[in-house]
Amino acid sequence: MTTVRLPLFPLNSVLFPGLVLPLNVFEERYRAMMRDLLKTPEDEPRRFAVVAIRDGHEVAQSAPGMPDPTALPELGPAAGFGPDPAKSFHSTGCVADAATIREREDGTFEVLATGTTRARLVSVDASGPFLTADLEELPEDRGDEAGALAEGVLRAFRQYQKRLAGARERSLSTGADLPDEPSVVSYLVAAAMMLDTPTKQRLLQAPDTASRLRDELKLLRSETAIIRSLPSLPASELTRGRTSLN
Description:
30% of the residues lie in helices and 23% in strands. It is of the alpha+beta class. The protein has two domains: 3-137, Archaeosine Trna-guanine Transglycosylase, Chain: A, domain 4; 146-238, no CATH class. A hairpin with a 5-residue loop joins strand 4 (92-103) and strand 5 (109-125). The chain is globular, with a radius of gyration of 19 Å.
């Protein structure tokens, strides 16, 4: 399979194809990445890869024990990721296309990108000003009974929304806003559910759309049952999980 080399942006969350990713870029290594992407010709996509960090913490402790308050912060493109950065990341990520890259007066960037396709991490290069990676773009196979499964997931997702809406301060999408293409349904539901990063990562790397939908159907039924059984739980408790792609 053909590989492509792209800038690599590790996050503490999972990006899915078709989902919007707003970024507030302030670290120098990622500023350098955005400056490089701005050099891309206007008629070409500004592509970079997003991968979820395995341990959920961007700055990894280099040695056991309490951190040394006198130690200088680690610098460089692989800072916080150890001597072999690839081990800090999940092996399946998502290619993103930056539609908007706006530099602020202080040198930070406001970025709006969209996930386009899944990709497998082959290798990571930390020799430049920012991380780059060789990736294999992954096809999205439909699998068996994806259409029927998508219908079931949409019904279950609407029930999940109704139960969740009573415990959340902000509103959720209505059923009328939901798509019917199985792969799109599978990615939207995976992104919208309040799940931890390992579970979202499992959904991202499902072997096909039908498998992802089957997993989501089980999760939706389970999560809806939990919410139903805890009607007095404060909204803040129900929304502690990551609910956006930020």
